[in-house]
Amino acid sequence: MKVLKIIIVFVVSFSALGYQINNDSAAVSLQRHTIVIGEQIKLKLQFFYNVVDNEVIWPEFDNYLTNDIEIIKKNEVKTHPLDSTHQHRFLKEQELIITSFEPKTNPIPPFEFKYQDSIYLSQSLSLNVNTVPVDTANKKLYDIFPIYEEEYPVTERIADTLKEYWYLLIILILIAIIIILYLKYKNKPKEVIVQEVKLPPHVKALNVLNELKAKQAWKNEDKKEYYSNLTDTVREYLEERFGIQALEKTTREIINDLKHTDISVDDKHFLREILKQADYVKFAKFKPQDEDGLQALEQSVEFVEKTKIDTKTNNNTKTNVE
After folding, report:
1. Residues with Cβ < 8 Å from 121, sequence gap 6 or more?
2. In angstroms, rounded to a whole number, what is the distance separating the alpha carbons of residues 302 and 106?
3. How far is CA 234 from CA 11, 134, 254, 281, 312, in A?
4. What is the pTM (predicted TM-score) of this model?
5. For range 269-296, the mean pLDDT
6. What are 17-65's pLDDT values in tens digits?
7. What is the pLDDT of residue 231?
8. What average pLDDT does this structure show over 241-250?
9. CA triplet 108, 109, 115: central angle to 5 degrees?
10. H, E, C per residue of 37-100
11. Which of 111, 141, 185, 257 is the most exposed place for a label (fewest CB within 10 A)?
């Protein structure tokens, strides 16, 4: 009889525990399912559970939700107690600010939550990204140009003649060049030309950055021009200093190329942020504060100073005339 009671208590306890685990749930929701390119919206992650003593292992994110959806801001994970009207006792949630520059339907896969040795998956979503429609209501449309009759003007006749007797033109040009060079250097004194030393990448970059600082360019109304000059200088420095094609690549491609360099994690984070901010200014019409522009300039100078290669450069020598 005693053994039977123990078995009954064990079965009831196990059933209650199983119900509690199965009763927990994960959810994810979008503020809207359709945006225009570059628009920012909220993505909310939620997990409902009943035992507060057990830790909920939350999904971890870097700066991208997927390859085509970028995370602009990650708010902290918060825990809220729920009243008796709810099915669960506690709610843990987090809000993400996301955007995308890929005009298509971008799938959002399920997120994984771990709780009490179990794995919970949220539902999958999709984010539709549309381009900005072109307003043709006020645009005047023009007819196709009519077909003109073929003409044979004098210029075309000359061009056809030169195609046939091109070798004579080359001979005349060579004779003219020889005569010009002879007259130019016949009585000219000889010069000793000292070749200028090519400036190191950090010297070139600091010259441009200091010029922007002297002009207080971050205060200009045209933020797009300022951030373009600033990031082009940084990109050119990266290209000459680390040997990557930074001027022709996207922000994400640049950061990937710098993974195997000796740049610190903090400096890589700075590069990602300043290049992203410049992309927002140029493509999403984002207008940062003057203080942000000055901070970006000062951090760019600091980054160049920290990563430069110390070399001795000779001063430019003037041409000596004999």
Report:
1. 26, 110, 111, 112, 113
2. 38
3. 67, 34, 11, 16, 22
4. 0.38
5. 82
6. 333 344 678 999 999 999 999 999 999 999 998 887 778 899 998 999 9
7. 86
8. 82
9. 125
10. CCCCEEEEEEEEECCCCCCEECCCCCCECCCCCEEEEECCCEEEECCCCCCCCEEEEEEEEEEC
11. 141
Residues 6 or more apart from 18 whose CB is under 8 A from it?
none
Cα angle 289, 294, 298; round to 5 = 150
Strands (E), the chain: 25-30, 34-36, 41-49, 56-57, 70-74, 78-81, 90-99, 105-108, 112-115, 118-121, 125-130, 191-192, 320-321
Domains in the chain, CATH or no CATH each: 24-130 (2.60.40.740), 201-307 (no CATH)
For the chain, helix, strand, coil in percent to 5 are 45, 20, 40
Task: Report the SS3 class of residue 186.
Answer: coil
Nearest to 238 by CA among 205, 270, 207: 205
pLDDT tens-digit series, residues 192-237? 666 667 788 888 888 888 988 888 888 888 888 888 888 888 888 8
* Residues shown for the chain: 322
Three-class DSSP category at 309:
coil
Buried b (16+ CB within 10 A) or exposed e, 277-287: bbbbbeeeebe
Tens of pLDDT, residue by residue over 139-148, are 666 677 777 6
Q: What is the mean pLDDT of the chain?
A: 80
Q: Which two tokens stand for residue 131?
A: 């381009």
Q: Is 234:297 a contact under the CB 8 Å cutoff?
A: no
Is 103:37 a contact under the CB 8 Å cutoff?
A: yes
Three-class DSSP category at 140: coil
Q: Tell the residue number behind the tokens 């207008």, with chain if given.
A: 287
Beta bridge partners of 30: 43
- 284's CB contacts (< 8 A; 6+ apart) are 38, 99
> Judging by beta carbons within 10 Å of its beta carbon (0-12, 13-18, 19+), is residue 205 exposed, middle or buried?
buried
